[in-house]
Write a structure and sequence with these properties.
By secondary structure, this protein is an alpha+beta fold. The chain is 30% helix and 23% strand.
């Protein structure tokens, strides 16, 4: 179930639209806006009310889809998905949406997140006779729906969803309806919008902007939305539990122009940079951020500290994110291709390099080296989040602590490994309080498990690698 760790990967992205004559084309554009959430595979399943029709492949959105292919699956409703391999690993069979056909009706599922009880559920289903066609934990939901004893599809789906534990933002499509569901802790982001009379769902609001949809509201934890030709109605499959949205959505994953639960990501990251400057005072000449996710925090740090912000690194827009590469050698080569220092900006300068996180340390070490090779006299690394010390079981590709540099080294040891003149992280309280969520409680509705080791759900024993069980609280 658990993917082999490579680096800090994003969760997947889901998109759905119901009631628009160009639903398939709009889903393509929605997925394009969510491309940053996964670059290993993409898929669309559409319906014209008669049948569900799939189109999917491995690679980027622009590589998988063509206008001719999209035209062949035209319909009034569609759901889509971009992915990187978490549960189940790579392979075309695991590219979503997953489509299931039966004599009692078809359904397609797009799922963002990881189920922590997938192994238990799968074992139970197999003992009852289920045969799985993929290694994705998403398939578990389809089997639960089909094997449910309830009379209607809605009741079957709600019953199946109530059995899932972990993180899941789901969009489900049948010939008659589109269904939207979010796990009771709200670990993943999911928003609802409208485009004329059509309903739209997406992992991030930036997908609404590209298709011209208007944001309506966030999907609530434990909520089950049913959208048909008669409109939309909201029900529940579970009572909401303690809100625990993934903090890394604000720190790193989401696009800066997205709003997550009413908070603009760029604004939140800028506040993190301001707080970082309050916590860390460094005598330096310039502040620069690692493109793209750290630029907002770098600007905030610069404004608060009074040290000028400069474009010290340029990103090559034609190179994919380095964590997508499947081997360490390719990742390191990818950093060289992806980032270039601006020599005239950093030469002879004491540089504060703002980044959002350090996972393995490989990329940080290479960037520090690049800056020093370009003439920087000092490179001080400041991180707009706390050290990542614990594995994530909810959809981020860090399912083992073995390769997390902060789990196995002190901050001073980390500094030496990456070659920086100093290394400082933002405090947990500073991060939580400055993102801006107003949920009651000290956690303000965040999942902080990768920082603190405190998980918002039960973590099942076979989810954790044997040698790391003592680390999971």
């Amino acid at each position: 179930m658990l993917a082999e760790i490579r680096s800090l990967n994003e969760e997947c992205g889901v998109f759905g639209i119901w009631g628009h004559p160009n639903a398939t084309q709009l889903t393509y554009y929605g997925l394009h806006a969510l491309q940053h959430r996964g670059q290993e595979g993409a898929g669309i399943v559409s319906t014209d009310g008669e049948a569900l029709r799939p189109l999917k492949g491995e690679g980027m959105v622009s590589e998988v889809f063509t206008p001719e292919k999209i035209e062949k699956i035209a319909g009034h409703a569609a759901i889509g998905h971009v992915r990187y391999a978490t549960a189940g690993g790579s392979g075309i069979e695991n590219v979503q949406p997953l489509l299931f056909n039966s004599t009692t009706g078809s359904l397609a599922i797009s799922h963002n997140g990881n189920l922590v009880n997938a192994t238990q559920l799968k074992g139970h289903l197999e003992r009852q006779g289920s045969i799985f066609q993929t290694t994705s934990d998403t398939e578990v939901l389809a089997h639960l729906i089909k094997r449910s004893g309830y009379a209607t599809f809605e009741e079957k789906a709600k019953n199946a969803l109530s059995l899932l534990k972990g993180a899941f933002a789901c969009v489900i499509l049948t010939e008659e309806a589109m269904y939207i569901a979010l796990d009771p802790n709200g670990l993943r982001p999911l928003s609802l919008g409208k485009l004329g009379d059509a309903w739209v769902a997406a992992s991030e609001t930036c997908a609404f902007d590209i298709v011209g949809a208007e944001f309506v509201r966030s999907v609530e934890p434990g909520e089950f939305l049913i959208i048909t030709k008669d409109g939309m109605r909201a029900e529940r499959f579970a009572y909401p539990e303690e809100r625990s949205i993934c903090t890394m959505e604000y720190v790193y994953f989401s696009r800066p122009d997205s709003d997550i639960d009413g908070i603009n990501v760029h604004t939140a990251r800028k506040r993190l940079g301001v707080q970082l400057a309050k916590e860390v005072q460094i005598d330096a000449d310039v502040v620069t951020g690692v493109p793209d996710s750290s630029i907002s925090a770098a600007i905030g740090y610069s404004e608060q500290s009074g040290i000028p912000y400069e474009l010290g690194m340029i990103k090559n827009r034609y190179v994919g994110r380095t964590f997508i590469q499947p081997s360490q050698d390719l990742r390191e080569q990818g950093v060289k291709m992806k980032l270039s220092p601006v020599r005239q900006v950093v030469n002879g300068k004491r540089v504060i390099m703002v980044d959002d996180s350090i996972v393995r340390g490989t990329t940080s070490r290479r960037i520090v080296t690049l800056l020093k090779e370009a003439g920087a006299t000092e490179v001080h690394v400041v991180i707009s989040s706390p050290p990542i010390k614990n594995p994530c079981f909810y959809g981020i590709d860090i399912s083992t602590a073995g390769e997390l540099i902060a789990a196995n080294n002190t901050i001073e040891e980390m500094r030496e490994i990456i070659g920086a003149d100093s290394l400082t992280f933002l405090s947990v309280d500073g991060m939580v309080q400055n993102i801006g969520r107003t949920d009651p409680g000290s956690k303000c509705g965040h999942c902080l498990a990768c920082f603190t080791g405190e998980y918002p759900t039960n973590i099942y024993p076979d989810t954790v690698l044997p040698h790391e069980k003592e680390k999971v609280k």
